[in-house]
Amino acid sequence: MSSALKHTPLHAVHIESGAKMVDFGGWDMPVAYGSQLEEHHAVRQDAGMFDVSHMLNVDVNGTDAEAFLQHLLANDVRKLSVPGKALYSCMLNPQGGVIDDLIVYFFSADQWRVVVNAGTADKDVAWMQEQATSGSFDVTVTPRRDLAMVAVQGPNARAKVWTARPDWEQDTHAIAPFTGAFVADDILVARTGYTGEDGFEVVLPADQVVAFWRDLEQNGVRPCGLGARDTLRLEAGMNLYGQEMDEQVNPLVSALAWTVSLKDPERRFIGRDALEAVVVDRMLVGVKLLERGVMRGHMKVRTQQGEGELTSGSMSPTMGVSIGMARVPLGAQPGDQIQVEIRGKWAPAEVVKMPFVRNGKIVA
C-alpha cells in the first residue's frame, strides 16, 4: 500500500475490521467490510454508516461571506435565512464547467460552512481563496481537517444515533431535511445524505470519531464502504463528481439546472455568462436495462434522437436489474426504448424517471 495515500481518523478501525481498502481520490478508504450487497440492504432496510471524513468541511467567515458565496456559487445562498439550513450547489469555472458540487450551510450572516468532495478538496480551497483575494472580499476560507465526518443512513438511522448519543436527541429530533444543528462545540448533526434514505451526517472533532463509530456499531449500525455508497447514490439518482459532471461539463446537461439560480440578473456569479450563452442539446436521463447484463460508465447508448453515453452504471441491489445514467440528445422521455452497447452487442433498455429508489421503495 502506498505510503502517499491519506488516512482518515478511522483508518485503523477499518483495517482492524478487515475492510477491503482502495485508493479513492488519494485516500485509503474501505470499499466493503464483507458483503457489499448486505451493506447496501442494511441502509435500505435498517441503518448503515460510512466514514466520509475524506470530504472536507470549509468554514467561510467574515463580513463579506454572503456576498462572496453569491459570487462563488451558482445557487442563491440568500435562500438560506434559518440558522443550520443547507443548500446544494455547484461551484463553476468561468466556462460554466463544474469545479465541484457541494453543500453550503448558513449559521449567521458572517458564518457559513461549505462541504466539498475529497478528490477536489485541495483545488476547491485554492480556488475559493483565490476568488476571495481577487474579489477583495472581507472573508476567511478555513479548511477544517481537525474535523471528521460520519454518515449514518437508513430508516432506523436517526433512532440509532439517539440511542448511541441520547443527549443529542433534543436538539436534532425536529430538524427538517437539509438542516443541521450544533449539539456541542464543533459537533454538527445534519439531516443530509447521499443514499436516498433518511439519516444524519455528523461532523465532529477527529479525536471523538472512533468512540462515536464504535458506539454506533454496538447499537446495530452496520459499517458500509464506498461500494454500497455508490449503488445507493445511483439508485437515488444522485450525481457523482467526475462521472456525471466535471470541469468540462456544465450543470445544465447534468440534470442540475435546478441548482442554478438565474432569477436575480444583478447576481453575476462565476460561470453565469457561459451558462446564459450555452445551447443545451443534451440531457441526463435514468436508464434501466431490460435483459441480463450490467451497464457501466462510458458505454454507448442509442436513442431515437441519436447516440449518447452512460455516465454511471451498476447492478441495482434493490431492483435486481442493471441501472444507470446516460447523457443523451434532447427529447428522450421516460418509457422510450433505447439500446446500450455491452461487450459489442446492443442490449434493450428503457429511459426511466429518476430516482430509481427512494426511502426503501422502488419508484422507477
Q: What would you say about this model in short?
A:
By secondary structure, the chain is α+β, with helices and mostly antiparallel strands. The protein has nine helices and 21 strands.
Overview of the molecule:
The chain has 364 residues and is an alpha+beta fold. Among the domains are: 11-53 and 146-235, Probable tRNA modification gtpase trme, domain 1 (Gyrase A, domain 2, 2-Layer Sandwich); 281-362, Aminomethyltransferase beta-barrel domains (Elongation Factor Tu (Ef-tu), domain 3, Beta Barrel). Helices cover 21% and strands 34% of the residues. The chain has helices at residues 11-16, 36-45, 65-72, 121-134, 157-164, 169-172, 209-218, 226-235, 272-277; strands at 20-24, 27-32, 48-51, 56-61, 86-92, 98-108, 111-116, 140-143, 147-153, 180-184, 187-190, 199-205, 222-223, 282-289, 300-303, 306-315, 322-329, 337-342, 345-352, 357-358, 361-362. Strands 10-11-12-9-3-13 form a 6-stranded mixed β-sheet. A 6-stranded antiparallel beta barrel has the order 14-17-16-15-18-19. A hairpin with a 5-residue loop joins strand 5 and strand 6. Helix 2 (36-45) packs across helix 8 (226-235). The radius of gyration is 20 Å and the shape is globular.
